[in-house]
Amino acid sequence: MLDNTVGIGMKDVGDARPVFIIAEIGINHNGSVDLAKRLIDGAVLAGCDAVKFQKRTPEKCVPLDQRYNERDTPWGRITYIEYRERMEFSEADYRQIDRHCRERGILWFASCWDQESVDFMERFDPPCYKAASACLTDIDLLLTMKATGRPLIISTGMSTMEEIDAAVLAVGRENLLIAHSTSTYPCPPSELNLTMIEVLKRKYSDCPIGYSGHETGLAPTWAAVALGATFVERHITLDRAMWGSDQAASVEIGGLIRLVANIRDLEHAMGDGIKRVYESELAARKKLRRVESQMSLALA
User: Fold this and answer.
1) What is the pLDDT of residues 184-226, one digit of tens each?
2) What are the pLDDT digits (tens) for 71-125?
3) Contact 172, 146 (CB under 8 A)
4) How many CB atoms sit inside 10 A of residue 213's CB?
5) pLDDT of residue 112
């Protein structure tokens, strides 16, 4: 088997390795460090390998024609640019998050939406970077993240195969991980297209292939693991009814505990594909099998 392992922190991600499970906090913290810490604690309780945030420089990422559109928020009715600024953590905030994650023994990193955000995140020595689906065609941004020398995860929602190919060609396959995704929040089952995991595994066999899910429920993520996803990412929340654009497509902590536990069960259940008679079957075989095969008699 081709060794497509990529190291993220002290973890190895790839075929024949435990599934690397990322709890996407994203912007579900609603600008609160205390809420972010509670979400980190939930991810630790569930047994996740990492938590992930989103980092933007609002003046770089918010289009000019949207900056002063007003919207209702937990802080009242404010402009979109002001909302984005309130959602961003400061360096001091991230120092708290960094310390909290280190104390809890969990990795953390971020999706960076602009090059200044990459420079910002470099202060925290992240184990890897993630490029959101919306950024897949921003080749300059991808190259900025890749130039740090850290592993890069790219997500492929809202993208054509040609766009995926172009991104992979631009950044190269070394230390590259690719996540199948559909960028609908929440995503209906008919648009999950999980078979793409197998397509990507054949096409990019030297890269770990994973799944970033935005569906409601847990079954599709388990199916993704059964199809060979080497890492999975799901948004998490304390309450799916909370204010925020990503909350409804997120997994609450109780569901996250089930998700992780059953992924670990699936890893054991998949086996190696070599048919054998297990010792635990011998008593039933002796009691219930009435006719021994010719092969069994020959071996007796």
Assistant:
1) 999 999 999 999 999 999 999 999 999 999 999 999 999 999 9
2) 888 888 989 899 899 989 999 999 999 999 999 999 999 999 999 999 999 999 9
3) yes
4) 29
5) 97
Report the candidate in 197, 240, 187, 188 with the shortest Cα–Cα distance to residue 222.
197
User: What is the H or E stretch that residue 213 is in?
Assistant: strand 209-213
Residue reference for tokens 């054509």: 160
Greatest alpha-carbon pair distance for the chain in Å reads 82
Residue by residue, what is the 3-state secondary structure of 94-152? HHHHHHHHHHHCCEEEEEECCHHHHHHHHHHCCCCEEECHHHCCCHHHHHHHHCCCCCE
Confidence (pLDDT) at 173: 97
| Per-residue pLDDT, 61 | 87
Give the span between the Cα atoms of 251 and 146, in whole angstroms.
Answer: 30
Contact 9, 127 (CB under 8 A): yes
Closest among 5, 203, 229, 26 to 112, alpha carbons compared: 26
DSSP alpha helix (H) spans, the chain: 33-46, 58-61, 80-87, 91-104, 115-121, 139-146, 161-171, 196-203, 219-226, 253-270, 282-288, 294-299
CB atoms within 10 A of CB 38: 14
The contacts of residue 198 (CB under 8 Å, 6+ apart) are 227, 228
Q: Please, are residues 107 and 50 in contact by the beta-carbon 8 Å criterion?
A: yes
How far, in Å, are 274, 282, 290, 296 from residue 293 at the CA level? 19, 15, 10, 5
Tokens of 70: 């007003």
The pLDDT score that the predictor gives to residue 72 is 87
Question: Residue 87 — left, alpha, or beta (φ > 0 → left; ψ -120 to 50 → alpha)?
Answer: alpha
Q: Classify 295 as helix, strand or coil.
A: helix
Do the Cβ atoms of 41 and 104 come closer than 8 Å? Answer: yes
Question: Domain 6-299 has what CATH class?
Answer: alpha beta
